Amino acid sequence: MVLLAEDTFLSAMQQEAGMTQDELKQAVAKAALDYIAPRLERNSVIGVGTGSTANYFIDYLAGIRNDFDGAVASSDATAERLKKHGIPVYDLNAVADLEFYVDGADETNDRLELIKGGGGALTREKIVAAVAKTFICIADDSKKVDILGDFPLPVEVIPMARSHVGRQIVQLGGDPVYREGVTTDNGNIIIDIHNMDLSRPIVVEERLNQIVGVVTNGLFARRPADLLLLGTKDGVRSIPRNPST
Ligand SMILES: O=C(CO)[C@H](O)[C@H](O)COP(=O)(O)O
């Protein structure tokens, strides 16, 4: 595990007010690159997430592609983008060591517990995050919340279990909404849970995963991020997880 600095503001590149959300995403992607670049070895393989913030990170990564070996992708879309930049993409099973995983999020709380899966890639994201030694979450400050759950919680489900899982979610107090027309990279469907009490994220994460037919859900509470790079109008805040909270 890399030693993480105290909460600090990084870089002066975005200190003017009025930055767009996209510019904040770009700023945190650059901050992630600046964080990992000096820590990479020539044989390093990097875990790479999915979504618009992760895409900016991939584009920055291309600038240092001769300084590391390659990447593991959390989705087919990410693999495609990495390859377009000439970055070798490895199967996770072929990789012995993954120092860093860099990915966005739909929501984060103070404990760096996350909701992910807005882009439907939650299962592969969770697998890569589980393997990586350090999970760096990159997000603009619209994603920072006190209590998770305004963003509907995605659940990846085996298609034939859709109705069963929906009924179980209702029993747990959530409102399941089938994400129409979406098939995950694993050939499954997504159910988004609205109005669920997520004040105890670890408990909910485990309870949902016990439902037969659920592949996994988008709560990253058992494996939160280790470092949050949060884009704000005052700069990128570097917030390491505090394991004692
Ligand atoms: O979990 C994800 C994809 O499954 C993304 O990280 C999440 O949806 C954030 O996306 P974006 O960076 O586009 O705001």
Automatic annotation (TrEMBL):
CDD domains given in the database record: RPI_A
Enzyme Commission number(s): 5.3.1.6
Pathway membership: Carbohydrate degradation; pentose phosphate pathway; D-ribose 5-phosphate from D-ribulose 5-phosphate (non-oxidative stage): step 1/1
GO molecular function, one term: ribose-5-phosphate isomerase activity
Catalysed reaction, written as an equation: aldehydo-D-ribose 5-phosphate = D-ribulose 5-phosphate
GO biological process: D-ribose metabolic process; pentose-phosphate shunt, non-oxidative branch
Active site, renumbered: E125 (proton acceptor)
GO cellular component labels: cytosol
Pfam families (UniProt xref): Rib_5-P_isom_A
UniProt-annotated binding residues for substrate: T50, G51, S52, T53, D103, G104, A105, D106, K116, G117, G118, G119, K143
Residue ranges of the TM segments: none
Keywords in alphabetical order: Isomerase
Cross-referenced InterPro entries: NagB/RpiA_transferase-like (IPR037171), Ribose5P_isomerase_typA_subgr (IPR020672), Ribose5P_isomerase_type_A (IPR004788)
First-level EC class: isomerase
Family: Belongs to the ribose 5-phosphate isomerase family.
HAMAP family, alphabetized: Rib_5P_isom_A
Function: Catalyzes the reversible conversion of ribose-5-phosphate to ribulose 5-phosphate.
PANTHER family referenced in this protein's UniProt entry, alphabetically: RIBOSE-5-PHOSPHATE ISOMERASE
Subunit structure: Homodimer.
Protein name per its UniProtKB record: Ribose-5-phosphate isomerase A
Native organism: Marinobacter daqiaonensis
